[in-house]
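ugh ok so i messed up the first submission bc i forgot one of the chains. this is the corrected input, ALL of the components this time, i swear. 516 residues overall. if the numbers dont match what u have on ur side tell me asap before i send this to the collaborators (the ones from the other lab, u know who)
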Amino acid sequence: MIGSLVLHLALLLLFAPLMQGVITKTKAWFGGRVGAPLLQPYFDLARLWHKGFVLSRTTTWVFLAGPVVALVVPVLASLLLPFGALPAPISFEGDLILFVYLFGLSRFFTATAALDTGSSFEGMGAAREVTFSCLAEPTVLFALLVLARLSGGLSLNTLFGGHLLEAWHSGAGASLSLVLVCLFVVLLVENSRIPFDDPNTHLELTMIHEVMVLDHSGPALGMVLYGAALKMMVLGALLVRLALPWQTGWWVSDAAIFLAGLFCVAILIGVVESTMARLRLSRVPQVLIGTSLLSIFALVLVLR
Amino acid sequence: MTDLTNPLLLAVILINFFTLGSARLGACIRVVSVQGALLALLPLTTHGFSFHSILLTTGAFCLKGVFIPWLLFRAIREVRIRRELEPTIGFVPTMILGALTTAGAFLFADFLPLISEHHEGLFVPTALATMFAGFLLLVSRRKAITQVLGYLMLENGIFVIGVLLSDALPLMVEAGVLLDLLVAVFVMGIVMNHISREFSTINTERLSALKE
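and heres the new structure output, hopefully the right one now
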């Protein structure tokens, strides 16, 4: 129990920023550049940690609560989620609802922290973030419902249990692949990656997530960035387990499979980011409604 | 071979959704041609390699996957349109309607008096869903070219049923259907060219307001 807890947290905390590094490296490779070193996200975090806070006088404690919650929530959520074949340290019936709404909590605090600054740009970003994520939520819930139906349990540990390998070969393989696509889109939306939001632009009129953290500085910004990296890894873990349902029984090889899967997800995100253009803001809800419909359709296929 | 059939049919349904939600004509034509090409593989995956199925596959592939898309691309180049604007029913509503009809097709297919081996599998629901999606495209879009695409999708749905029955269906009937389709698209392409030459738009809405 303690061992798996430590292993879980060590995997999460150590390797999360590496995913960001892999994504930037892939994008650089596509652009024909050398790009920043793979470990650049770690250097950035260390640099931010040594800086001082700059706090606006108009902000309250909510402004600091935003980054803290953004950092703590992915850690808590990761404890409910199996990493590849490594089972989750904490598990109970119905923890999938907690999993989904933990992210709702972090979103609430990020949005209120953004509103707390009183800047009109940040309010705009918060409005967009909340709109898009409330459209992404049905997709996640229906996708999890499909998995719940297949596994017959209601905890994430059973949902992503060993039966997935057989499920891929049975008639449910089709709906599992739909769920995979839907969860990938949700991963892109929730982490504000390119077809939905550009993490690199700092143009206030078009960006969503980045605009909300404009006023954070120093360690607070570092916490936001680290939290974002953790969130990407936690949501990526869903995809990895679905796509690579193999179980070896030895924790080292299980962890290796998991990390290799995350590496592939990061490369995939990098490829998507370099080959696609940003969607127009009005098209994003349309795409999200489309994925919700797809996941509902996957559920229909399974219920049949 | 039957392992391949379900993913193929699933891809066909996904393409239905894409066409209902996309405004870009070029992309729509491309995915509908991909849909046709995927459907052309169906006789091989369901009935195995035989003279009949190979003939059906090549015929359908050349027509649906290559020739008709080429005609349509030529048409949109000549009348210079790129995207479908302001459809009669919006993109999101048509997508939701499409999802409802797809779910309905899955429910309805179970009630049809089919022989037991057709009951399982995605064939009948996919055929119904594709026909509904094509029908939706026909009634909800204004540009003549998207309506042609809807017509094509309608035919794709019929083709799925045809494949299911192709042991019973004589080759001539299938060839006749394909020929009908080709002629129809031909005629529509010519009509479209004429319309655009006369009225400088191919918005079918204008046609209903014609006066003597």
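quick check: The radius of gyration of chain A is 19 Å. that seems consistent at least. The interface with chain B takes residues 171, 173-174, 177-178, 285-286, 289-290, 293-294, 296-297, 300-301, 304 of chain A (CB under 8 Å).
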